[in-house]
Write a structure and sequence with these properties.
Shape: globular
Strand content: 15-25%
Protein name: GMC family oxidoreductase
CATH class of the largest domain: Alpha Beta
Number of strands: 20
Domain 4Fe-4S ferredoxin-type: 201-231
Cofactor: FAD
Largest sheet: 7 strands, antiparallel
Organism: Halorubrum saccharovorum
Number of helices: 12
Family: Belongs to the GMC oxidoreductase family.
Length: 539
């Protein structure tokens, strides 16, 4: 409902005279809508519902009960969210997304790092992958603005971080007790630890409370201390934007040079056409290429904005590397649901053979007492004894590893399976590559050395044969200076269409090894500025 038009509550009909139509209300779409709504008529279409914030405690309870899987927490699944896999590597897509107002930030962990300078120049500096058509300097002021908008707690104690122009909006979270244990081992090994930028409040910020330590950040923060995109959806509505939930966009109508309408379906079975002067597609690295492929026409027989043939290609995700075990002393895990210390020391050593990676010192190794209690069949003293024996001595390190863009890693349409509207579902064909697997091995070497220095008994290793995705969808609508090499230009405007932008990690030409949301937010703010400027020139 728009604050400027309360009568639209429950009304999913198109908005007349819209200047901008945004598809998707995750962090990218929400930031674009908020930035443009003050002086433009903005409408946001999202396939999912508007979740009631008072239900978050119920969703938290789901998250900790073993009878629920992660997608169940935010009602993901069923025919609406059907997908398929065809690659050698299985991709659990429904563990990675939330369909609804706020998008994936409803269940993300909230880590927000800037990409490093060399990440934008991978071909030049590392000898692999393409260079971006923009560099760190182009995004640097938008990174700072994104940190203010999301509310980032951090410190300037990371000597390996890219240059910044001002402090983070909030002070960093204090190192945890287990961080102090890691610090002793890392000092012996000559490994540097530093704080981690978090999109959660270390103090009251922007009308939201400080973190109160629920420990269930992923997949739900009941306190609202962790940023999610409903913050900017609400602001956009206060400025007059119209946000229409459960409005699944089926296709984008267009002529040879412009998008003319977003055709969307509503729960009553009706289809509507939302026209606008400008369109911003912000529905993620899987649903965005799917929508473009569903919008094929005589002008674009291989999918909209796909004259390059790269829509859906070069699908990337970060890979997980980890080592864990137990100590013969308490480590005080699961007091918070995020990590407070990291190591970027080895990140910029990347070259053709080994990719960039970052290391993480976990605060949530092993099961929490609640999880242990809910999975047992004992009671009373037996339960207490089991919890005392099994909780509190776990320790673990994690890490993210870059995957290079590969032509044999892609998102396409499944020819045999359809969703609840009869459209082909996304098919994920995920390929990884040897460089990423070698990088995992390198990360494991360092992680193992730290835990051995601690005196831990190592009980598991997430190495090349046991890795998985970090659920960061990148590369499927990539940015390029050459129209034949990508989908969007340096401003994230599609090469083929004058009035269509893509705001998503899908535009990343390379992935780096940093969590992507801060870069998504910075690019979204930059997209909004470009849309405003071109609208002012009568786009």
């Amino acid at each position: 409902m728009s604050a400027g038009d309360a009568s639209r509550d429950g009304d999913r009909s198109p908005v007349a005279n819209a200047d901008v139509c945004v598809v998707g209300s995750g962090p990218a779409g929400a930031l674009v809508a908020d930035r443009l709504a003050a002086d433009r008529e903005v409408v946001v279409l999202d396939a999912g519902p508007r979740f009631d914030p008072t239900d978050r405690l119920t969703r938290q309870e789901r998250a900790i009960r073993p009878s629920y899987d992660r997608p169940d927490v935010w009602d993901v699944g069923g025919e609406r969210d059907a997908h398929s896999n065809s690659g050698e590597w299985f991709y659990p897509l429904n563990h990675a997304r939330v369909k609804g107002i706020g998008g994936s930030t409803l269940h993300w962990q909230g880590m927000v790092m800037r990409l490093h300078e060399d990440d934008f120049n991978s071909k030049t500096e590392r000898g692999v992958g393409p260079d971006w058509p923009i560099d760190y300097g182009d995004l640097r002021p938008y990174y700072a603005e994104a940190e203010r908008e999301l509310g980032v707690a951090g410190a300037s104690d990371n000597p390996y971080a890219p240059p910044r122009e001002e402090p983070h909006p909030m002070p960093a979270f204090e190192p945890s007790y287990s961080d102090s244990l890691f610090a002793e081992a890392c000092e012996e090994l000559g490994i540097d630890m530093h704080s981690v930028p978090n999109a959660r409040n270390s103090e009251t910020y922007d009308g939201r409370s400080a973190c109160v330590g629920y420990g269930t950040c992923q997949p739900v923060c009941p306190a609202g201390a962790k940023y999610d995109a409903t913050v900017h959806v609400d602001r956009a509505e206060e400025k007059g934007a119209n946000v229409i939930d459960r409005a699944a966009v089926q296709r984008l109508e267009h002529d040879a040079d412009r998008v003319t309408a977003a055709v969307y379906a509503t729960p009553d079975g009706e289809e509507h056409r939302q026209t606008a002067d400008a369109f911003v597609v912000a529905c993620g690295g899987v649903e965005t290429p799917r929508l473009l492929l569903l919008s094929e026409s005589e002008a674009y027989p291989d999918g909209l904005a796909n004259s390059s043939g790269t829509v859906g290609k070069f699908f990337m995700d970060h890979l997980f590397a980890g080592v864990g075990g137990t100590l013969d002393e308490p480590t005080r895990q699961n007091h918070v649901g995020f990590y407070t210390s990291a190591c970027d020391q080895f990140y910029d050593e990347a070259d053709e053979d080994i990719g960039p990676f970052k290391l993480e010192f976990f605060n949530y190794a092993g099961p929490s007492p609640v999880e242990m209690a809910l999975t047992g069949d004992d009671w009373g003293d037996d339960l207490v004894d089991r919890l005392r024996d099994g909780y509190g001595t776990h320790v673990a390190m994690g890490g993210l590893v870059e995957q290079l863009p590969r032509s044999d890693s892609y998102v396409t349409l499944d020819p045999d399976r359809t969703d609840d509207h009869g459209n082909p579902v996304p098919e994920i064909h995920w390929s990884v590559g040897d460089r990423a697997l070698r990088t995992i091995e390198r990360a494991n070497e360092i992680q193992r050395s730290v835990l051995e220095e601690l005196g831990a008994e190592i009980e598991w290793v997430a190495g090349p044969d046991a890795t998985g995705p970090a659920f960061h969808h990148m590369g499927t609508t990539r940015m390029s200076a050459d129209p034949d090499a990508g989908v969007v230009d340096a401003d994230c405007r599609t090469h083929d269409l004058d009035n269509c932008w893509i705001a998503s990690s899908g535009v990343f030409p390379t992935s780096g090894a940093m969590n992507p949301t801060l870069t998504i937010a910075a690019l979204a703010l930059r997209v909004a500025d470009d849309v405003r400027e071109r609208l002012s020139q009568t786009l």
